[in-house]
Design a protein that fits this description.
CATH class of the largest domain: Alpha Beta
CATH superfamily of the largest domain: PAS domain
Number of strands: 12
Structural class: alpha+beta
Largest sheet: 5 strands, antiparallel
Number of helices: 10
CATH architecture of the largest domain: 2-Layer Sandwich
Order of helices and strands: HHEEHEEEHHHEHEEHEEHHEE
Strand content: 15-25%
Distance between the termini: 71 Å
Helix content: 40-55%
Bound molecules: adenosine-5'-triphosphate, magnesium ion
Length: about 475
């Protein structure tokens, strides 16, 4: 058997919740007002009855009149107060059993009943009602009368000079109270129904407004899932929280888009860089294969070329792997480095690489926490660039000066320098300035990208500037 599906949408649920809460609130206030009104009206009625009974008993004389005279006085009083459904019933019962009332029919007095008008059943019912009424005890009672419905009765004893003169009773029908209660109920139900419809509509509209940006977000997420990163949620025009969420979502998409674009550029650049040596290799091998008489010299020439290109490819692949690992956040092996000794060792190693005027500038006598191999690699990369951009005998200067909370490493040369508009872009992968491309130094443009990734992994920053000699100055700060 299929279970009924529960509404899942935010709109439907919010509307239902609002309606349910309102129904509860209306029902509770209805109950309170309905029973409160009834109670208040009944209390008012009882107070009226007591006052009326007081006034009635006050008219009774206290002398030694005979029962006949007393009945006559009461009769005059009660007949001046005709009983209608909305006013009082008055009756008095004298000690001799005589009953005087303004409603003889109600009390079943002889002569009051009209046998021709009423059916036997009705007469019997009225007789029973009359008996109950006549036997009403002292104080308040509610009696059921056939035609009138509920009748509230108050009976009180009139005592004069220690003798019971009479029992007087006043009664009032409860129908007006019930009518008033029903009136309140009708008005309340009508107003409640109206409020319920209005609240449900308002809830629906509100929920639609809240959920529409969420639906848009879901749509955007689905588009992104399908591979389209160009979608954005944009201005939702709704509440603060939703706007913040939409902005965060768009920001995330911007970054994803950017990351994917960079990834694509990286892959295409990398394959382009690898294709060049591969093309050279294939060309050389094809030439060799087509040759009829291959001499030993030919083989040696091709072998030299092939191994040079293979070496280049190996370097490139190593660089790419290192870059990928560093950017992924591969852990560093930090150790305490005594800067002075360390920089002397690095300087010795660097100065053996080329025939340049290597110089060791200021080096502070401090210690820092860093990965010695990675740090040496950064300095080597920078020094290699300086070597590549200077002629024989050119200046290459290293320094490492402590400055407050960080150590500033610098590599300077007296080469052509880096044009200011290129100083940011040289750190991008495969980026080489036009001069470098023209000179075909053999570099692939990964050295500075690797240097930046390693410096940032250490929590530092790297930038390019100009040396005092007008050449390039590459400096980076590492926190101590
Ligand atoms: N000291 C320098 N003087 C002048 N230009 C420089 C200097 N250092 C870097 N550059 C410029 O920045 C570019 C990027 O340098 P990077 O070290 O990233 O690549 P590369 O040296 O060309 O190749 P690789 O280091 O991968 O062998 C260089 O091609 C060059 O144009
Ligand atoms: Mg380089």
């Amino acid at each position: 058997m299929a279970r009924p599906r529960r509404p899942r949408g935010l709109r439907a649920r919010l509307t239902l919740w609002i309606a349910a809460i309102l129904i509860l609130a209306v029902a509770a206030s209805f109950f309170a007002i309905y029973s409160g009104t009834g109670q208040q009206l009944r209390n008012q009625l009882d107070r009226d009855l007591e006052t009326q009974a007081g006034a009635f008993s006050a008219t009774l004389p206290g002398g030694d009149e005979g029962h006949g005279e007393l009945a006559e006085i009461i009769n005059r009083y009660v007949n001046n107060q005709p009983f209608r459904a909305s006013s009082q019933l008055l009756f008095a019962r004298l000690p001799d059993g005589r009953i005087v009332t303004n409603e003889p029919e109600l009390l079943g007095l002889p002569g009051a009943l009209d046998p021709e008008r009423e059916s036997a059943g009705a007469q019997q019912a009225e007789n029973t009602d009359a008996r109950t009424l006549r036997a009403a005890p002292l104080g308040f009672t509610t009696v059921q009368a056939a035609d009138l419905g509920g009748l509230r009765v108050f009976v009180k004893q009139v005592v004069r000079h220690g003798h019971v003169v009479a029992r007087v009773g006043v009664g009032e029908p409860l129908a007006p109270v019930t009518r008033a209660q029903h009136g309140v109920a009708r008005t309340f139900l009508l107003a409640g129904l109206f409020a319920l419809i209005a609240a449900a509509l308002a809830g629906y509209v509100l929920a639609s407004r809240v959920s529409s940006p969420l639906r848009r977000m879901a749509g955007t997420a689905a588009a992104v899932d399908a591979g389209d990163l160009s979608h954005r949620i944009g201005d939702t025009g709704s509440s603060e929280e939703i706007r913040v969420l939409a902005e965060a979502f768009d920001h995330m998409l911007d970054r994803l888009d950017d990351a994917f674009a960079r990834q694509r550029a990286f892959v295409s650049d990398a394959s382009h860089e690898l294709r060049t040596p591969l093309t050279i290799l294939r060309g050389q091998l094809e030439v060799l294969a087509r040759q009829k008489d291959v001499t030993r010299d030919d083989v040696q020439r091709v072998t030299r070329l092939v191994s040079a290109e293979t070496e280049r490819m190996e370097r490139l692949v190593d660089d790419l792997l290192l870059l990928a690992k560093t950017e992924e956040g591969s852990p560093l092996t930090r150790r305490t480095i005594e800067l002075r000794d360390y920089m002397h060792d690095v300087f010795d190693a660097v100065s053996l690489t080329a025939d340049r005027d290597f110089e060791l500038g200021a080096v502070s006598d401090v210690s820092i926490e860093a990965d010695p191999d990675r740090l040496a690699q950064v300095i080597h990369n920078l020094a290699q660039n300086s070597v590549a951009h200077t002629a024989e005998g050119g200046l290459v200067r290293l320094s490492a000066a402590a400055n407050g909370r960080y150590v500033r490493f610098a590599v300077e040369d007296d080469g052509p320098g880096i044009p200011p508009d290129q100083r940011d872009r040289i750190f991008d992968r495969f980026h080489r300035t036009d001069i470098s491309r023209a000179r075909t130094t053999g570099g692939s443009g990964l050295g500075l990208a690797i240097a930046r990734a390693l410096v940032e992994a250490h929590g530092g920053r790297i930038r390019a500037g100009e040396s005092p000699e007008g050449g390039a100055r590459l400096e980076f700060d590492l926190p101590r």
